[in-house]
UniProtKB/TrEMBL annotation, chain A:
InterPro entries: RNA_pol_sigma_r2, WH-like_DNA-bd_sf. It comes from Terrabacter tumescens. This is DNA-directed RNA polymerase sigma-70 factor. Residues 1-13 have a biased composition (Basic and acidic residues). Gene3D superfamilies: Winged helix-like DNA-binding domain superfamily/Winged helix DNA-binding domain (1.10.10.10). The keyword Transcription applies. GO terms for cellular component: DNA-directed RNA polymerase complex. Keywords: DNA-directed RNA polymerase, Transcription. Residues 1-43, 229-255 are annotated as: Disordered.
TrEMBL record, chain B:
This is Zinc-finger domain-containing protein. It comes from Terrabacter tumescens. The lineage of its organism: Bacteria, Bacillati, Actinomycetota, Actinomycetes, Micrococcales.
Amino acid sequence: MTAVRRDSSRDAEAPPASQADSRAPVGDPEPRDWVSALGGTGPEQSTALRELHALMIRAAGHQVWRMRAALPDPSPGAVDVIVNQAADEAMTALLGKLHTFQGRSRFTTWAFKFAILQAATEVRRLQWQHREVELRDVELRPSPAHEGPELSAEGIDLAGAVARAMSRVLTPYQRRIAVALLVDGVPIDVLAERLGSSRGALYKTLHEVRTRLRAELVATGYLPVSQAGPARLPQASPISPTDHEVSPTSSAGTR
Amino acid sequence: MSQTPGPRPDVLTDPAVESLLQDTTPWLSCEECFERMDTYAEAAVHDPQHLDEAMTAHLRGCSACDEEAQSLIDLLRAS
């Protein structure tokens, strides 16, 4: 990103007039050919790169602001660093995929999503950077905290059925991933980073977990058949290779 | 800043049960969700009733993608 100077985070609040097209209503035609400008040479490319970086700053700033409560250090200086770093990395990712832009949305919308993804991932990483992520294969029990005796009995009954189903139909790896993501609340990209995996791979595991649990709860009468949903697994994979690599209560450490 | 988390209780809360039983069909991967996110967000801004069944199911089941999609929609609405 040598051709692009880092902008101040103030750009996120007040973009220059040259970015006015990014604020045009979504349905309006694209006012410039971003792909040609960015893929070209000379001053036109330099201008396009500068304006694209300002767009990235704006979207990254928007995302970091939304998640500021999760930041260990929400001071303006720290936020400025996060926003600029996310914008730089998002811009690199976008330029690497520039040839894939098909014009189905406005280019600016397409660009924003790269910065939002990068900024959100970075905030979650910072939020968990000093926290240990433990992969627990535990036997869960229903929470006693429910409202009212009837709801309490119903909720405890269902939670008990889910806990039993987790023991019965999930692999140890699936249980550990499900507990980390849905019980312990570890963000999916944080867990992916600690395991050397990807968000997509973990989500696939989670989808398999949910499909198996729902099928089991239908079989045991806790869910009506209509709620089972089609058992459309993305790919049959009874046991992930990672099953063999994770100990019963292994720690994914901290970063 | 260092945080020392306390021992994690081995309990299934209602939100955890709900999330474990979430119906995430039809299947859509996080990668496909990211690919569609720009068109999905623009459609959502144009028409709040817009329905993309696979995206909706994915966003129900993936809080990270959901946060990012909602953020993009908010950013477009603010534009």
